Amino acid sequence: MGRTIVITGAGSGFGALAARALADAGHTVYAAMRDTAGRNASRVAEAEAYAAEHRVDLRTVELDVLSQESADAAVATVLSGAGALDVVVHNAGHMVTGPTEAFTPEELAAVYDTNVLGTQRVNRAALPHLRAQEHGLVLWIGSTSTRGGTPPYLAPYFAAKAAMDALAVSYAAELARFGIETTIVVPGAFTSGTNHFATGGHPAEQAVLPAYEERYAGLMDQVAQRLAALAPADAPASLVADAIVEVVDTPPGERPFRVHVDPANDGSEEVSRVADRIRAEFLTRIGLDDLLAPHTPASSRPTV
Questions:
Q1: For the segment 251-280, what is each residue's pLDDT rounded down to a tens digit?
Q2: Residue 157 known to be catalytic
Q3: Closest among 91, 94, 93, 95 to 138, alpha carbons compared
Q4: Which residue, among 26, 31, 2, 28, has the nearest Cα to 14 in the 3D structure?
Q5: Given 157, 171, 212, 216, the catalytic residue
Q6: pLDDT tens digits, residue range 170-190?
Q7: DSSP string, 47-102
Q8: pTM given for the model
């Protein structure tokens, strides 16, 4: 049965790939992006052309994750247009590269605003509806950097992704009794097929950079090249979209808590397996093991 899905940051990269793959799988998909009448107008046109050519239900919606008003309006548009909302995919994100010291606190806060607070704004818009209907899926696009290998010069992004993962883990337990599932899809370093590296930001303050360039000359290029060398040549970014489709198409109540898509195998899956086991064991120890899986909606429970 087709579901209604909204994906943030779906103008390019994982978001655009997932939007098309989910639409191909028979779902009604809202590819959310900001400035749909301006700089992303061409991406709106591309989505419309794809929908027409492939005869799928792929739509676009204006959504700036930096604005609660925009998130509220986007969810309202989805509900009025499709009459339903079943799946929220938190994909919007922004990467910055450079020596950590060079970033001002305000620049770090801006990365956090997009990658973490943006998910909170969308949740506050969507969760009242999902809670009321007592079912749904919140799917978070994480990063292996949260628990795997962490090369230098990416600290603001890594810190924000770690915070988002922590938020997702807490939300999972808090939404379970409303019948809402959580899955965290964890991509590794895909250096092609997305715009992360190409559109990544850099520190505005340049004064500290020469000192780092003296000791770490060309480091960012070296990191990108070595990450690219680790990934198999036949590992396209579309693997992440495929994983998202598989999670959405899995029957409710059977979806995995965490799915890794990491061709380079930076160790995140191994560490996460331990961390998630400890979480499950601890919730069980304190008598909250019912929070490890979504509850059956009250309307579906047998009366006695």
A1: 999 999 999 999 888 899 999 999 999 999
A2: yes
A3: 91
A4: 31
A5: 157
A6: 999 999 999 999 999 999 877
A7: HHHHHHHHT--EEEEE--TT-HHHHHHHHHHHHHHHS---EEEE-----B-S-GGG
A8: 0.92
